[in-house]
Amino acid sequence: MRQLWLRHQSWLTPALLLFLPVLLFGTVIVASAVQSVWFGFFDWDGTGPKTWVGLGNYRELFGDPQFLVSLKNNVIWLVLFLLAPVIGLALALFLNQNLPEIRVVKAVFFIPLVLAHVIIGVVFAWFYDPTFGLLAMAARAIGVTPVAILSNEHLVTFGIIVAALWAQVAFCLVLFLAGLSQIDHELVAAGRLDGATGWRLFRFIVLPQLKSVTFVSAIITVIMSLRNFDMISVMTQGGPYGRSTVLAYQMYDATIFSYRAGYGAAIATVLFAIMSIYIGWFLVHTLREERRRR
Q1: Which CATH number belongs to the domain containing residue 285 in this structure?
Q2: Is residue 124 part of a domain?
Q3: Burial of 115 per CB tally in 10 Å (0-12, 13-18, 19+)
Q4: Residue 48 CB burial class (10 angstroms; 0-12, 13-18, ≥19)
Q5: pTM of the predicted model, to two decimals?
Q6: Which of 9, 126, 144, 245 has CB 3.0 to 4.6 Å from 238, enough for a Cys bridge?
Q7: Residue 172: pLDDT over 80
């Protein structure tokens, strides 16, 4: 037995170490995803008997005006959330300085990272309050009538996105600060000797060394933009009149409050497909760019 172990240790050790994580991933993630797709073909309240409806849930879904609103909001979230890596990188470049006082400034920027999204949602709901919120006080101070952002169907989605961006920018900031600490300073010095300064130094020397960090930051930001739920639940519960609802919250509302688990599973399947298509495209595009540069 010992001889067998020594002979195959090179692959048995990683296989044994990976067995339990792979089993848990397959059971909790993969099996649940497959089961959710399967439930999307049934009319089911979540507890009673299931009735096969085939593509009925999907036909109803694509004819549902609320689904179109949720889908539009998801697109808005995706586009605006991609500002997080850009802002995070800009802040990281600013904070990446060897100054004693910069530590205090970094601590201020790190605050959103240690706060739960629910807490951030509650704080921003107070901030937006048109009667006693800080935004209302500032508006009155300059003689402007306060706007009830979370009650305005045209502004509510953007108000929630600003709150969510505050936390996501902090996450991207930490990633880029870690990436900047690992760059090769000899390459930076060589670039300066060759006359590269400012934008050219950043574009051709620093940014290529942050490719992996940028990739991770962009992927996680996209995933967070498509699966946003907690901020909407705390700040508006999808209101007013469903104008701030996204696919994740519509899925929750249909499953929990309308007792339509099959319909909610269909929404989850569509959201999963959108996320998979975008991430797949991003991966292919990134790999192609990597091959061209080589």
Answers
A1: 1.10.3720.10
A2: no
A3: middle
A4: exposed
A5: 0.88
A6: 245
A7: yes
